[in-house]
Specification:
Shape: elongated
Distance between the termini: 118 Å
Number of helices: 28
Strand content: 15-25%
Length: 844
């Protein structure tokens, strides 16, 4: 109300009734004062009353409109009380004249005004606003009724806005300790899209001192943000965005938790207005008196409880995982939903390859749920000493990188996503000696993670380490069981099958799902030893040899067949001939296995059976016996064959030296016999080559004069074969490091093939070429082309076929000695085999 309106005289009677009261006392009061007559005409109203009523002049103030509805009835009753010279004290809700939707709760004290004759002519009312108390009660009621709900802070903000007008309300969560003060905006009203490439703001020493020196305050926002210490944040996108909103006034208060020495700041609530000077000390007092601490703490606790529930669900799902890759996927998805992070990856430390391998990855979808990125185990790996992950593996400590562009060890993401901050936390198993897994979180915002995030994720890593270790051991055990060659069957105490491995599925010829729940007795033809377990008879750990039923024979039986199978497993006292014949026929069709068992721990109950298939064992024994026999036969036959062939060659030479036609014919027959004996000798040499000791035993290298060995080998040939061999060497006394037996087998085999395949007039050349490091032995001769399909082998082609069969073994024998075997066809059509041996080195 302007001065002219306030000083305007109402009437002489009014001036007389005011008497000694000074108009200045009422005009400057914060309590609304209204003087009226008994006909409810307003004679006087101070500035506080005009503001409360929503009018500018006394002449505009109408009590019938101010006391609308139920308030009008109260006014009539109080008027009668004034006529009776009674004092009045009552509460009523007034309706503002400028905004009928806005109501003001007040407490009124009414005084009767009398003239000089003592007649009541009016009333003087003092109106004390109860809006502050109403607002306090409303905030408290909202806190009680909406605790644990996400809409608590928006409702509180709307309630505040009527008494404390603002254009923007912010709630920032604070994480403080002895070394740092970090804050993140968690709520804004009205909602708007924040341009926040920086998530958590870390205050410097001056800014932290400013916040800790006071509990709240009223400031000129533009001035504060343009001067130290807050001018350092002027270039932050969030500050530029608020500057663009033309915010000029601010009022803030601290939200604390605890009392005394345990009191700490957990949040900051700030009101901002576009009107300069919108807030004063009176607004700040009301702001500090309101029970906003409880509302903000309930909101923060609600978010914390949501995280706790999601974390509990994560542990439950993790306990259901049976393989480590599924556990890693479960953990990455859960962390996305618990913390609303953008991208989480799980890495495994592969100590065998000294690498860090990505196992699982998830990102945050538009609906806030985790979305699998589709990565597979090992699609990305890096060195164990590289990058931020390598630093975690070295230090066994979490790494929080506020800005990866300032970290020299940062490796770009394999998916090509923009990353500005990263958090990596190790998962250590019970021994605690090395990192097993790494939880890696990245975000496109700068400083997206706080110290509280590091603490929370570290606690989760410690809690899930036991489950991850258990699942890793279970995965390893499952892989061992699934890849072992022996069938393994786990049953309960009633011998009902609970789990089998793939080898057991192959043994019984039935899928795992069809076997689970069946009786183990139904899978064997003679289950009497197994039935002893059900009868309580001690069966021992070695059940013995049993025969498996034909594949699928027990699939048609239901789970209830176990008692029947157990009873039928006990042989009758007088078996019939027909049953004996049937049993014999059944045994003839089943695979023999040897059964051993072990018991589960007593509280679990059940058995583990291992069924070793006897057929491969018996076949291996047979093959071993045949191999030993063949080798001994080959060794024992070499000398007699050599003596016989030498004797026949002498007779062959004598026959060809004679001019008699009969002797010439006899010589040709001897030549044919010698060729056949040569094939027999070569066959026995191949048997000797397949000796298992020569194949798998480690080589016995020794210095060997290879030129002397070749001379001795050529001397052992028949005279007709010696004439076909030309041995050339530029240097005598050539020593190599080789195994005597294996070298002899290789050279003799290749030479025998070339001699058998060579025509009568062709020659086989052996050339010894020593080098600085190696000694090369070249064997050159002519082999026929490979035969066409359907044609019979001739002698040369048979030799070539034998070479193709023996060549892989000959190469292995050369490799065992540190040498090599190469074969090639020369331009003239000859075939050349090149053997390389390491040259003997002088010692000392």
């Amino acid at each position: 109300m302007d001065d002219s309106a306030q000083e305007r005289p109402t009437s002489a009677a009014a001036a007389a009734m005011l008497g000694q009261m000074k108009r200045a006392v009422f005009d400057g009061s914060r309590i609304a004062v209204i003087q009226r007559d008994l006909q409810n005409n307003v004679l006087y109203a101070n500035a506080a009353a005009l503001t409360m009523s929503g009018v500018e002049h006394v002449d505009q103030l109408r009590l019938d409109r101010l006391f609308a509805g139920e308030a009008g009835r109260v006014l009539d009753e109080e008027t009668r009380g004034r006529r009776n010279r009674e004092l009045g004290a009552y509460r009523v809700t007034l309706t503002c004249q400028d905004d009928p939707e806005r109501q003001v709760a007040v407490e009124v004290t009414g005084l009767p005004l009398m003239d000089e004759r003592g007649t009541v002519v009016g009333s003087l009312g003092f109106f004390r606003s109860l809006q502050h108390q109403v607002l306090t009660d409303q905030v408290r009621e909202l806190t009680l009724s909406h605790a644990g709900r996400a809409d608590l802070l928006p409702l509180v903000a709307e309630a505040l806005r009527r008494e404390l007008p603002f254009d923007l309300m912010l709630v920032s969560r604070v994480v403080e300790d002895d070394s740092a003060w970090e804050s993140e905006i968690v709520f804004n009203h009205p909602p708007f899209r924040q341009d926040v490439p920086t998530a958590w703001y870390e205050l410097n020493a001056a800014q932290r001192g400013f916040m800790e020196s006071q509990d709240g305050g009223v400031h000129d926002f533009e001035t504060v943000m343009s001067e130290p210490p807050w001018s350092d944040m002027a270039d932050e996108p969030m500050c530029r965005q608020m500057h663009a909103m033309d915010l000029k006034s601010s009022m803030w208060r601290r939200i604390t938790r605890g009392e005394g020495e345990d009191e700490r700041t957990v949040a900051i609530m700030t009101l901002l207005s576009r009107e300069r000077g919108a807030y004063d000390e009176q607004h700040l007092a009301l702001f500090n008196q309101l029970p906003l601490i409880e509302a903000v703490l309930c909101s923060l606790d609600h978010a914390e409880r949501v995280r706790d529930r999601r974390q509990l669900r994560m542990f439950r799902e993790l306990n259901r995982c049976v393989d480590i890759q599924g556990a890693c996927r479960c953990l990455s998805d859960a962390l996305i939903e618990i913390f609303d992070w953008q991208h989480v990856s799980l890495f495994r430390i592969d100590s065998a390859r000294d690498a860090i391998v990505r196992v699982a990855s998830a990102r945050r979808g538009d609906d806030g749920q985790a979305v699998d990125t589709g990565v597979s185990w090992g699609d990305y790996s890096q060195g164990i000493e590289q990058g931020i992950l390598g630093r975690v593996a070295r230090t066994l400590a979490p790494q929080k990188i506020p800005d990866v562009t300032r970290d020299a060890e940062y490796l770009p993401t394999p998916d090509g996503e923009p990353i500005r901050s990263e958090l990596a936390v190790p998962i250590l198993f019970s021994e605690g000696e090395r990192v097993r897994f790494i939880v890696n979180v990245d975000d496109p915002r700068v400083n997206a993670f706080s110290r509280e995030h590091v603490r929370q994720l570290t606690d989760i890593a410690h809690e899930v380490a036991g489950a991850m270790e258990r699942i890793s051991d279970l995965t390893l055990m499952t892989e061992c069981v699934n890849n072992v060659s022996d069938p393994i069957i786990a049953t309960d105490a009633k011998l009902r099958i609970r789990r089998v491995n793939p080898a057991a599925e192959a043994l019984f010829g039935v899928a795992r799902k069809a076997l689970e729940g069946r009786s183990l007795l139904a899978l064997f033809q003679n289950p009497a030893p197994l039935a002893a377990l059900l009868d309580g008879t001690e069966a021992g750990d070695r059940i013995g040899e049993l025969r498996v039923c034909r594949p699928g024979a027990a699939v048609d039986e239901g789970p209830d067949a176990a008692p029947n199978a157990a009873s039928s497993a006990v042989p009758s006292a007088v078996p019939s001939a027909a049953s004996d014949a049937a049993a014999a026929g059944a045994e003839a069709g089943g695979a023999p296995v040897f059964i051993t068992r072990s018991d589960f721990p007593g509280k679990l109950g059940g058995h583990v059976f291992i069924a070793r298939d006897l057929r491969p064992i018996r076949r291996s024994v047979q093959l071993e016996f045949l191999e030993d026999t063949a080798y001994e036969l080959a060794v024992e036959t070499q000398a007699p064959l050599g003596m016989a062939m030498s004797c026949l060659e002498d007779q062959l030479e004598a026959a060809f030296q004679s001019d008699a036609a009969r002797e010439q014919a006899r010589g040709r027959e001897l030549q044919t016999v010698l060729r056949q004996l040569g094939r027999v000798k070569h066959a026995f040499t191949r048997l000797a080559m397949y000796n298992r000791e020569a194949r798998v035993a480690s080589r016995v290298a020794s210095p060997i004069r290879i030129d002397c060995e070749i001379d001795a080998l050529l001397a052992s040939l028949a005279a007709s074969e010696r004439r076909k061999v030309v041995f050339e060497t530029a240097v005598r006394k050539v020593e190599v490091e080789a195994d005597h037996m294996q070298m002899h087998i290789v050279v003799e085999s290749l030479l025998s093939v070339l001699l058998r395949a060579a025509p009568e007039t062709a020659m086989v050349r052996l050339t010894l070429v020593p080098d600085d490091e190696l000694v090369y032995l070249r064997l050159r001769g002519r082999l026929p082309p490979a035969r066409r399909h359907g044609e019979r082998f001739s002698a040369p082609e048979a030799a070539q076929a034998d070479l193709r069969l023996a060549n892989p073994l000959l190469g292995k024998l050369m490799k065992n000695q540190g040498g090599a075997l190469k074969a090639g066809v020369l331009p003239d059509g000859d075939t050349e085999f090149v053997l390389s041996f390491p040259r003997r080195r002088a010692h000392g």
